Amino acid sequence: MNRVTHTTWASILSFVSLLLITNLLLVVSCLPLVVLLMTTDPALSWPLIALATPLAAPGVCAAFRAFREHGAGGSGPLAAFWAGLRDTWRRSLLIGSATTALVVVLLVDVRALSATDAAVFVVPLLAVLVVLAVAAALLALVALAEVPTAGWRDLLRASVYLSLRRWYLTAVSLGVLVAQAGVFQAAPALGLGITASVVLYLAWTNSRFTLRPVLDLDEAAAQ
After folding, report:
1. How many domains are there within the chain?
2. Coil, strand, or helix at residue 6?
């Protein structure tokens, strides 16, 4: 019984350590975006925020890599996070840049068309495309953390298709991210210091399950 209790507590402490260390590394890697969000009015500084947002993608992908390594019994969070940055920063930055550019264009179109007669038809469609772009980007970053050498066609096709095919899982992932945005707005210290990695872990777990039809996750983790 004592051995079981000791193992349980060791697992809990290891998981808490993973979340805290990853949270710190995530904040540091996303510092330009964090500073802008905390010191400016997003309604006025959105062009700068749009420029800084892609810089956060490598850190998010590295966090997913740390979660993956922990689940597979691999290296610690610091080493895994660094390995994730080293292996995926170029491609994750490209995913973040393309997604941000697409979302900005769509939102500008929403604003431009909101006062026209076509708004009732066009605006909901554009809003759906924004949600799809964010959902596909999230899946792409998770898949990239799992298989850094995946081909672009397979990566993007699987991300777009499965975000639609398993829309109910997509809704859960996006829901926790929206909740994190609310926490950050209400209590930035709590959002940055504790809940960021927790929310990303939940989104990562859900996204891995979403990707199961196209990824042999057990094999990928072993590799």
Report:
1. 1
2. helix
**Is there a contact between 46 and 111 (Cβ–Cβ < 8 Å)?**
no
> Does residue 146 register a pLDDT over 50?
yes
pTM: 0.90
Phi, psi dihedral angles at 217 (to 5 degrees) = -65, -35
- Domain with 128 in it: 2-222
Residue with tokens 């945005």: 181
Over the stretch 93-112, which tens digit does the pLDDT of each residue have?
999 999 999 999 999 998 88
How distant is the alpha carbon of residue 13 from its chain centre? 24
CA distance between the termini of the chain: 34
pLDDT digits (tens, 9 = 90+) for 21-74: 999 999 999 999 999 999 999 889 999 999 999 999 999 999 999 999 987 777
Tell me how far apart the alpha carbons of residues 40 and 7 are, in angstroms, rounded to a whole number: 46
Phi and psi torsions of 156, nearest 5° = -75, -40
d(C-alpha 180, C-alpha 191), whole Å? 7
Distance separating alpha carbons of residues 105 and 112, to the nearest angstrom: 10
State whether the Cα torsion 24-27-28-29 is positive or negative: positive
Here the tokens at position 146 are 């799992």
pLDDT band for position 4 (cuts 50, 70, 90): low
79 CB contacts (<8 Å, ≥6 apart)? Answer: 69
